[in-house]
Amino acid sequence: MRYCFMLLLLAVFYFPAQAQLKATLVRNKLIMEKPVTPSSHASTITALPGGQLLAAWFGGKEEGSKDVVIWASVYKNNQWHQPVQLADGIINDTLRYPCWNPVLFRTRAGLLCLFYKIGPNPREWWGMARYSHDNGVSWSSPEKLPAGILGPIKNKCIQLPDGHLLHPSSTESVTGNVWVSHMEISDSSGHAWKKININCDTFGVIQPTLLSYKDGKLQALFRSRQNVVASSWSADNGASWSAVSGLSLLNPNSGIDAVTRPDGWQVLVYNPTKSGKDWSNGRNELRVAVSKDGLQWKDVYTLEKHAGGEYSYPAIIATADGLVHITYTSDRKNIREVTLSLR
């Protein structure tokens, strides 16, 4: 009887609280009026002072082509501006590799970081970084991250209370097709790196995204091969993590991203479908979900829903004005930016 009473209380009080946040569209724009490359993918976004935004992605003939470089565009004066190239994979006069998965992050001190990968494929790539002290007007020379360190693999890092940066990362094995996620921690300048392992024994997971809670706990959400979004928790600022487990959210083996808003709400962007015969199956629908506890999630907005096509690899940030800014791949041809008000 007591158990039934508790379930009733949850139904009456908990779920209405989860559902009270509603999404309103503020802006929906393609970043490029005319794409600068035939293919664009894996975007990232960060906020700059004065209400500006900076987005980056990789683009070229197609994913994995040697001409794929990192592009970036600034949003200011109510428009996205002409993209500029931020990084390439040129090793020397005769050797060149594609670039992959840029990640932008601006620290509390104002250091703008660009992390990205260079290499023949995601199993053999290595981590790179550039830094800017003037909000992207100028950048440091590209530097290779230490051996065994990849940097944030797809999604943004978070800055811990002590100033250190916690980077969500993962590896894909050269043989055996093994996926394993881990964390990397650096100082506030993006140096002095250390790797932190996560128990992924029962799941094949990559590309974590990080959430923080008012009780001090951290949560990592993962892309998985098991057709669900997976999760792990830390109670010591990311120094150790629980074993990975599945949530009730569907995931077709596709990239996700999430963010913690200043008011404590967690916001996730994901493809709410199962995987199919081809790798792109299930990426035709993209939604936004919200949660207070990281366990129970409610969809509040549909970004894309089509019979086919690819709308995937989202990136999301939250700003103090109650807005969330989302970028994602638009059918591999462009990058779309959507701003939502969540109230």
**Total of helices:** 1
Query: What percent strand?
Result: over 45%
Helical fraction: under 10%
Assign the structural class, choosing from mainly alpha, mainly beta, alpha/beta, alpha+beta, or little secondary structure: mainly beta
The CATH C-level class name: Mainly Beta
Unreliable stretches, pLDDT < 50, 5 or more residues? 3-18
Could you outline the blueprint of secondary structure elements for this entry?
Blueprint (H helix, E strand, L loop, with lengths): L1 H18 L3 E8 L8 E9 L5 E8 L8 E8 L2 E2 L3 E4 L11 E8 L5 E7 L7 E7 L10 E2 L13 E2 L5 E8 L6 E8 L7 E4 L7 E8 L5 E7 L3 E7 L10 E6 L6 E4 L5 E5 L14 E7 L6 E8 L5 E8 L4 E8 L3 E9 L1
Antiparallel strand pairs: 1-25, 2-3, 3-4, 4-5, 4-6, 7-8, 8-9, 9-10, 11-12, 12-13, 13-14, 15-16, 16-17, 17-18, 19-20, 20-21, 21-22, 23-24, 24-25
Account of the protein in words:
The chain has 343 residues and is mostly beta strands. It has a single domain (25-342), classed as Neuraminidase, CATH 2.120.10. The protein is built from one helix and 25 strands. The strands form six sheets. Strands 2, 3, 4, 5 and 6 form a five-stranded antiparallel β-sheet that branches. Strands 1-25-24-23 form a four-stranded antiparallel β-sheet, with no helix packed on it. Strand 16 (218-224) and strand 17 (228-234) form a beta hairpin.
